[in-house]
Amino acid sequence: MGSTMIGPVALSALCLLAAVDTLPSPAPIDPRELDRQEQATESLANALLDLSVALRDGEFGLLGRAFLPGASVDRLPLPEGELGEADPWADRRIWAGGSEEAGGVELFIRSARDWHRDMGAIDDVRFKVKSSSLIEGGTKLKARIHYSLIGRSPDSRREWLRGWADGLAAANAEGDWRIDELRMESASSLRANAELFSEIGAPAGVADDLPPFRWTEGVEHGAAAGDLDRNGWIDIVATGPGRPHVYLNQGDGTFADKGALLGLQDHPRATAPLLLDWDNDGDLDLFLSALGPVQFYENRLVPEGALAFRNTSDRSDTAAPIGYSAISTDVDRDGYADIYVASYNRYARVFPDDWARAENGTPNLLFVNRGDGTFADRSREWGVDDRRWTYAGAFADLNEDGAPDLYLANDFGENALFLNRGKRYEDVAADWGVIDRGSGMGAAFGDIDNDGVLDLHVTNMSSTAGKRIIARLYGSAPPPLLEKLAAGNSLYRRVPGAGFENWTKRSGGLAAGWAWGGGFFDFDNDGWQDLYTPAGFVSGASMHDT
């Protein structure tokens, strides 16, 4: 500690401000003071992450490392009263915070044991610093802390607990910030009243051991589902390090990996699969995006009578492109499925030229089906060779003219909404209110209010540290651009004749950490579409790298 250099946290914030020239100037602030605040906060945040892991794993002897000697600490909240129904699928219960007795770390540890005893099993615990400020001449750090728990009751019902705490921290002899006071507020939880979903990857035969994470390979994962052999059962194609896997459904709840026997044994690793019937023969063909030449595989079930894939890539205009994901529709309405590829770029080898409006991504591709089993890239001709680091896209007919329109989720650039004008697309994202600045990772259309028109869900990253820094710079009124960059997912409600309106806050908030794809589906069969959002990134034992 005690460095006079501007640290990485403050430096990143100031670089972003410099890069986005349309932002208003924040209140005057000393960069060194900003860094001092965030260095202390990050030190405490790391201690809380270690506390989270120890609490999750029941390593009670390690819990004390997050506290200073003699710390004044409340016990963790404990359940009180009866369960009350929250909705048809879950019950709600209250957890009482505070402590009737003055306590120290031992009281906290005893209550942690009570958590494990009450829950039966704990899958995840997170303590995060949502806001903080140095006080008393910089010797103490006042912190607002949010915590969450995911676990299972003794009868195996999943439970989600969320609550808040106020903390006061100080530096120890080594300069690391640790908790000196912790006051736990009351919390509430939802406990499922039925087993909603179960992890069955291993018994189903689709679990796979992945190699240690490396940036150049670790993000290359995707999956697609469809009935490849037309036996009435849904099969799965999965990509990742190594060759693609083709899991054929055995009809008894299990799958068999037959990829090596179906013509994919020599294929290099791919980023994402797409299943579509591009030759209109009634069976599903396979397109593979990759960080290198994309690949076309024709399903020979028709006409040969047996499932097998034949590589037909050399018959199409691929020109060594790059692809991260792909979607399909008939853009020119000629009766043949076309393919749109989100190309992104080779991140870590190439870096964006702007954090909010980058335009140096690899151009996206539009493979138009010629009708003879081959494709031609018409992305420039159609005006959709977007270079804003596109991660994913979605097709939908938004203006109800019968032609598929296209939305793009861009990681480092403004998102795009392309309306199909016949033989060319027009970007109307600004006019329709869906630029959605942020780290775009996924997009999906669905009808959230059952009004018969499609609404839009966009997945982005939400950042606790980013929100803290923005609050330090701008207080309670941050510029919308900066606020959006750290806010997370967005939900837009379609207003016929007037584009979309942002429905995110009115929906209850959709922050989900480092979110990716997901989409709409009616999970509880009540006639209303629900949302599923996968989230997460590299997860080491300490959580410091997440």
Short structural description:
By secondary structure, this protein is of the alpha+beta class.
Structure report:
The protein has 546 residues and is of the alpha+beta class. Among the domains are: 166 residues, Roll (Nuclear Transport Factor 2, Chain: A), CATH 3.10.450.50; 111 residues. The chain contains 10 helices and 30 strands. The strands form 7 sheets. Strands 1, 2, 3, 4, 5, 6, 7 and 8 form an 8-stranded mixed beta sheet that branches. It has a 4-stranded antiparallel beta sheet with strand order 9-10-11-12, with no helix packed on it. α1 packs across α2 and α9 runs antiparallel to α10. It starts with 7 loop residues before the first helix and ends in a 14-residue tail after the last strand. 39% of the residues are buried.
Secondary structure: elements and pairs:
Elements: H1 8-19, H2 31-57, E1 67-73, E2 78-87, E3 90-96, H3 105-119, E4 121-135, E5 140-152, E6 158-171, E7 177-184, E8 187-192, H4 201-204, H5 215-218, E9 222-226, E10 235-239, E11 245-249, E12 255-257, E13 272-276, E14 285-289, E15 295-299, H6 301-304, E16 309-311, E17 325-329, E18 338-342, E19 365-369, E20 375-377, H7 379-382, E21 390-396, E22 405-410, E23 416-420, E24 425-427, H8 429-432, E25 442-446, E26 455-459, H9 464-474, H10 480-487, E27 490-494, E28 500-502, E29 519-521, E30 530-532
Parallel strand pairs: 1-7
Antiparallel strand pairs: 2-3, 3-8, 4-5, 5-6, 6-7, 6-8, 9-10, 10-11, 11-12, 13-14, 14-15, 15-16, 17-18, 18-19, 19-20, 21-22, 22-23, 23-24, 25-26, 26-27, 27-28, 29-30
Helix pairs in contact: 1-2, 9-10
